[in-house]
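Reply to dn_fold:

You asked what the input looked like. This is it:
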Amino acid sequence: MQNWLKKMTKSNLLKVTNLHATSHDGKKVLKGVDLEINKGEVIALLGPNGCGKSTLAHVISGNSKYKVDNGKITFKRKVVNSFTPEKRVKIGIALTHQHPPALKGVPLSVFLKIISKKDNDKEEMNIGSELLHREVNLDYSGGEKKISELMQILKLDPKLLILDELDSGLDIKNLKKLVGTIKKELVSKKVAILIITHSGRILDLLKPDMTCVMIDGEIYCKSKDYKKVLKTIDKYGYEKCKRCPFLAS
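and this is what came back:
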């Protein structure tokens, strides 16, 4: 196992150690994942479809559809393996969903007040004001769902935000709008971010501190140069990352 995966620093916010997990149908989906994210870091996670990227996100957030067979998830120096999803949200872990559910009969403005962690919440958002009177995610476009998700995340006051393919289905205008809000409301406040994506568009906008590649349930390499990773994948495919892991530079 690479030495960079074993190092523990005082600034560690999330530490995933030798994480093995299976899905509800018994399929092994994570096969010894090691990952560290420090406060204020932006980490990108790339990989082919079905490699376990979204599964890792759901396991970190406590989705009961997956069973942890071995390993630890440590957040703010506490092992959270047994924590419910609700408790993980309370301590600061937030996940955006690719397909968020609709809540018929519940206006977004009401829902935001219910979930807000702020006792006297008078915060004015610079996105999504046109959605506030509408029912949560009901008949929303893809872009509107992503805006709604981000509005909800901001009310949860996260310490770690996992963006699961935020850029999927978004045009560049809406993507820039969302990333601008993420930078202003989260990155500037040292919220750690894990970006799961297939595309370089969001990486060009957020400039990750480190980029990791997952293949078949394992993380094989990392690099501070996301452009180098994308170029290598584009030229040689993901399998190259198995044979020639990047060194931090």
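Residues 3-243 form a domain with the Rossmann fold fold (CATH 3.40.50.300).
Hope that clears it up.
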